[in-house]
Amino acid sequence: MPPKKNSVTLPIFKLKALNSDFVVDEVYLEPPFTAKDEATHTYLFIEKENITTFSLLHHLAHYFKLSEQDVSASGLKDEYAVTRQAISLRAIISEAEIEEANEFFASSGLQIVIIRLLGYGQEPMTPKYLHGNKFAITLRQLSPEIADKLVDHLKRNKFFQFINYYDEQRFGLPDSIHNTAQIGKALLADDWATAYHEYLKSGIDALEIAQAEAALIQRSSHTEAMTQVAASKLGFFVSSYNSRLWNEALKQTIDQQGDVIHVDFPYLGQISLPVDPTTPLPSMLAVEVEKKDWQTGTANPRLKKRPVVITVPVFLIDISEDSMHTGSYQAVTVAFYLPTGCYATMLVKQLLLSATLPPN
């Protein structure tokens, strides 16, 4: 008998009605600290809202009069959320300078707060220092029936297991058309003209568009224009395309395992999930992709390895009436930790499905 493939829809819910509905605390591994007089870098723990990590690094570089290459982070954090993460500056910054910076950001209307100085060292924060993230997430606009099912599911199940797809944030900048994978594909093909035009419509603001257009006029080269205005994002675009390849390979793998459900996720497209959570799946999936060496212009093949199934405890924090939406809606807050590279929004969507779909 061929495997069954059923189409299901996500229950109605709302994420990020408020930034405080999505709170992210980075869990980082500490870099080697040194004495201040021996250091080249300062490590800061920073809270932000309403800006991307790319924009955060830009503002820090501008304020402290550094190049953008001298400001780095271990990972990217959501724009519309309250996020806290470690940042490194290739400079020695004092506590007094931090106070002055916080006053400047507040007076400028930027929701950036340097919470504390972590220490000093001799190397930047890079992805190797990112361990994972802690989340406190409020789901709103839940019908009373869906909210009750979710709460009951959480009370009965200490651990939750979900399929580790990349979610929509990997494929689009905030407010974009989610075309970062198309940009990455063009970059790998050395089609810089296509990459440039896709970049212009990727959700960047009017100032960035003007800067890109001016760079093209000045340089008369799509390659040089892109490397001038989007240098910090080129690797992200290629990784976005590679992540799409991995998602597609994972979907094909699950489709071959047995009975599955197909779910359309906003901006992401259709994914496949096993009907039976005990269906045996590979612990890791490796997909051949390419990375770009921007100095030589060559694309180098590599294997993109990623865990297929993630199991974590999910804790019920609160259930209450949803004051943000008119009608009889409920709000449910949950908390959990995820290792680096996993998407909280993907966990939440599959958690809702698991709680509301009828048992096998």
- SSE pattern: EEEHEEHEEHEHHHHHEEEEEEEH
Largest sheet: 8 strands, mixed
> If helices are DSSP runs of H or I spanning 4 or more residues, what is the number of helices?
9
Q: How many domain units?
A: 3
Residue fraction in strands:
25-35%
Mean pLDDT: 92
Unreliable runs, pLDDT <50, ≥5 residues? none
- Terminal CA distance: 17 Å
Structural class: alpha+beta
Helix content: 25-40%
Q: How many E-type strands?
A: 15
Principal-axes shape call: globular
Radius of gyration: 22 Å
Structure description:
With 360 residues, the chain is an alpha+beta fold. It folds into three domains: 5-17 and 133-171 and 241-356, no CATH class; 32-124, Alpha-Beta Plaits, CATH 3.30.70; 180-236, no CATH class. The chain has helices at residues 53-63, 95-107, 144-156, 180-188, 192-200, 206-219, 222-229, 234-255, 344-356, and strands at residues 5-8, 22-28, 41-48, 71-73, 82-89, 112-121, 130-142, 159-163, 260-265, 269-274, 284-293, 298-307, 309-313, 315-321, 330-339. The strands form four sheets. Strands 2, 3, 4, 5, 6, 7, 14 and 15 form an eight-stranded mixed β-sheet that branches. Strands 1-9-10 form a three-stranded mixed β-sheet. Strands 8-13 form a two-stranded antiparallel ribbon. Helix 4 packs antiparallel against helix 5, helix 4 packs across helix 8 and helix 5 (192-200) crosses helix 7.
Structure, briefly:
The protein has 360 residues and is an alpha+beta fold. It has helices at 53-63, 95-107, 144-156, 180-188, 192-200, 206-219, 222-229, 234-255, 344-356, and strands at 5-8, 22-28, 41-48, 71-73, 82-89, 112-121, 130-142, 159-163, 260-265, 269-274, 284-293, 298-307, 309-313, 315-321, 330-339. It is built from 9 helices and 15 strands.
